[in-house]
């Protein structure tokens, strides 16, 4: 299983980034090979629609699960259509979140934010 | 001559001033560009209203022609497109209707459809032509509505008053771009000054002649007035803090139509603006 997590730092000991779409990196972790790659989130600097672009990146990287504290509705619709399940992150490091998911201790994220779309400007 | 009335924050009196200036003039055009919450019509109660729909163009993708090359997705600066399971998904509320995805699609798989985002109403209130831009609830941007209003072939009118949305963002820029003069409405508070400074920067950027009207004017300490003195900005009017005036306005009356005393305030304001524009024109012709 491939797990994606938004992160601020390229370290397994650090916590989950509070933002999904604007996180600087994503960890894509493969539970079979026990290897993780930190990928740059090109959406972080987008003028608007960062969540959609970030979600596209998650889907393109073949993730099966996303662990995130929150997710906007547009991003969630891309992720769900891409057959990726979304789990709510817990306090603690990225590593602890991965263990928690494998142990079945993470709950499915069902609160989806309406987003802040009218601030992108035209 | 087009006069835009703007302010950094809401509630300073943009609608109050633009409605009353138009009413004091008698024959004029009033355009409400505050499309998210237009309220000038509540004062004017226009008659013979007719309405036009405003639409924007949204891409639709012909799935049988799309080969999933992603060129459109990479092109879209606003990230309004996504490719999931070989299907392009369009996020209509994110799309800025630039038409770029159509141009770059090598398969010519993208067409456009019209999407209604609001309307423009037009009516008459005594001699004043009242134009109201209205954005549908849930739409992200009212800019296309302002754009639509500015592209209408209006009959010539000596004075047009543009009641702008609050703030200094894109839609305000769109509202003032054709203006010959900008009136900045300020409140005599520190918070008001902060916002006044922002709109001053905006009108300077656009190189528009402008002056400040201090609304709810009191004789004691006045940060907005001090700010104008410091920066050498023209104060073209001071509207007194007047409970009678406030009460009439809150009841939906146009004070300039109710009393000569109030009408005179707004006629003076118009004179100051017209002089300001002529002065500016004279300076520019000397340059």
Question: What is the gist of this entry?
Answer:
Chain A is an alpha/beta fold and 122 residues long. Chain A has three helices and five strands, in the order βββαβαβα.
Order of helices and strands of chain B: EHEHEHEEHEEHEHEHEHEHHH
CATH superfamily of chain A: Dinitrogenase iron-molybdenum cofactor biosynthesis domain
Q: What is the CATH topology classification name of chain A?
A: Nucleotidyltransferase, domain 5
Give unreliable regions of chain A as ranges: 117-122
Largest sheet of chain B: 9 strands, mixed
Question: What do these coordinates show?
Answer:
- The complex is a heterodimer of chains A (122) and B (287).
- Chain A is of the alpha/beta class and 122 residues long.
- Chain A contains 3 helices and 5 strands; from the N terminus they run βββαβαβα.
- Chain A has one domain: 2-Layer Sandwich (Nucleotidyltransferase, domain 5).
- Helices cover 24% and strands 21% of the residues of chain A.
- A 5-stranded mixed β-sheet of chain A has the order 3-2-1-4-5, with helices on both faces.
- In chain A, α1 packs parallel to α2.
- The longest helix of chain A has 11 residues.
- The C terminus of chain A is likely disordered.
- The mean pLDDT of chain B is 94.
- Chain B contains 11 helices and 11 strands.
- In chain B, β6 and β7 form a beta hairpin.
- In chain B, α1 crosses α11.
- Chain B folds into 2 domains: 222 residues, Rossmann fold (3-Layer(aba) Sandwich); 60 residues, Alpha-Beta Plaits.
- The interface between A and B is medium-sized, with 22 and 23 residues.
């Amino acid at each position: 299983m491939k797990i994606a997590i938004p992160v601020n730092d390229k370290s397994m000991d650090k916590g989950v980034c509070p933002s999904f779409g604007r996180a600087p990196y994503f960890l894509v972790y493969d539970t079979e090979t026990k290897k993780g790659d930190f990928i740059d989130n090109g959406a972080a600097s987008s003028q608007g629609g960062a969540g959609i672009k970030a979600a596209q990146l998650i889907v393109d990287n073949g993730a099966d699960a996303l662990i995130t504290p929150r997710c906007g509705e547009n991003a969630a619709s891309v992720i769900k259509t891409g057959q990726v399940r979304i789990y709510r992150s817990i306090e603690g490091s990225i590593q602890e979140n991965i263990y928690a998911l494998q142990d079945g201790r993470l709950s499915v994220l069902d609160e989806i934010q309406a987003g802040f779309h009218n601030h992108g400007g035209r | 001559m087009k006069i835009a009335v703007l302010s950094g924050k809401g509630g300073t009196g943009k609608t109050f001033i633009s409605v009353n200036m138009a009413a004091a003039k008698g024959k004029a055009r009033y355009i409400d560009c505050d499309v998210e919450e237009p309220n000038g019509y509540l004062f004017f109660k226009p008659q013979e209203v007719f309405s036009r729909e405003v639409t924007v163009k949204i891409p639709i993708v012909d799935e049988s022609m799309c080969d999933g090359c992603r060129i459109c997705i990479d092109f879209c600066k606003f990230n309004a497109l996504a490719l999931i399971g070989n299907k392009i998904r369009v996020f209509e509320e994110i799309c800025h209707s630039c038409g770029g995805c159509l141009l770059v699609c090598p398969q010519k798989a993208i067409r456009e459809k019209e999407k209604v985002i609001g309307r423009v109403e037009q009516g008459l209130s005594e001699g004043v032509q009242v134009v109201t831009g209205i954005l549908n609830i849930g739409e992200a941007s009212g800019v296309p509505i302002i754009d639509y209003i500015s592209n209408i072939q209006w009959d010539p009118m000596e004075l047009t008053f543009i009641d702008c949305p609050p703030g200094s963002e894109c839609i305000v820029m769109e509202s003032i771009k054709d203006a010959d003069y900008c009136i900045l409405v300020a409140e005599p508070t520190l918070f008001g000054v902060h916002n006044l400074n922002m709109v001053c920067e905006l009108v300077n950027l656009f190189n528009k002649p402008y002056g400040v009207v201090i609304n709810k004017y009191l004789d004691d300490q006045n940060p907005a007035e001090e700010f104008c003195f410091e920066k050498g900005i023209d104060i073209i009017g001071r509207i007194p803090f007047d409970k009678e005036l406030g009460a009439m306005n809150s009841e939906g009356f146009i004070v300039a139509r109710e009393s000569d005393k109030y009408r005179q305030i707004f006629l003076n304001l118009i004179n100051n603006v017209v002089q300001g524009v002529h002065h500016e024109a004279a300076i520019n012709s000397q340059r």
